[in-house]
# Entry
Amino acid sequence: MQSCRAGHNLLRFRELRGGAIRTPPLARATYMIWQILAPSQELTVPLPTYFNKETMYGLVSQVLDEGHNARCKVIYLDFAPLKFIDSAGVTVLSNLIEFLKKIGAKTYFKGHKTLHTPVRFLDDSGFFRQYLGYDLQQGAAVRATTLPLQLVEYSRSYGYMENRLVPWLANALETEERALSTVKVCFQEIFNNINDHSQVNIGCIFAQHYPNKDLIQITVSDFGVGIPYRVQQLEGNLSDQQAIARASEQGFTTQTTVRNRGAGLHVLVQNVAARNDGAVMIHSRRGILTCVRGRDGVKRTPRPAKGFYPGTLIQLALHTNTFVSDEIDEEFEW
# Structure
């Protein structure tokens, strides 16, 4: 990794030109207060060989410090070492690119033109079309087992669930869309969490179905202030992992609105882990919470992270062979 000299430069948005990835209008809408520490320097950062929620910390720390400041003005993301990337890796990579654009840093890709397997997967998922404006390979197309990368504003989250997420899930789970009312509530709570805790109001979502493992993996992430930040404003003695666990308890809320009372992450954990024998993994700042079905309900395991994640990442694991659909003839009530 090329080193960067520390410096300071207050930032404003600018459109990236000359082959850098494109900046959508939404990203140029507001001024930000984050900084580029070395405006005159550039940095090459290799992607992890196996890019997932456990290995993301090394990549993030090479690009950003814990104050959300970019280490250099120009960042080259090197795809050459990449051998595997899951849904968490895709969302983190997208979050990182979007964040760098917002603070005025230029991001370039390298090592992607060899079209090795994970690069072809990203290409089929529309990743390069979104960030370069074109596919790398002729005939690139979204696979039936993939729900492609999408940036979802909170105000549009319901429409996204109705028109994209739920139909894809219904197909993967071999059930009817109207039997997924509970699932829709769970995802609405994820987007509520983004709206309440992130200060960015935009989440990045990506999902992958692994039929040979009877597994569906869905990840939603953001680069906001993180769950612990909000919880610790109310209960300042909690560590990051304890704060995430506290946020998942029934009845806890950092908001005063009726919508959140007794709902929030608790609804998500109960329905995914307890009801469907799945798993919920939450990474935020320096804490991690894993929730699975236990003998007496949900087993919550908080632990410190191996690094710092500037925001919140929620990954769900649903097993297609244990999934419980809603009774279609019964109306779901909130």
User: Anything to note?
Assistant: The CA atoms of residues 63 and 228 lie 22 Å apart. Strands lie at 42-46, 50-51, 74-78, 84-85, 106-110, 146-153, 202-210, 215-222, 279-294, 297-319.
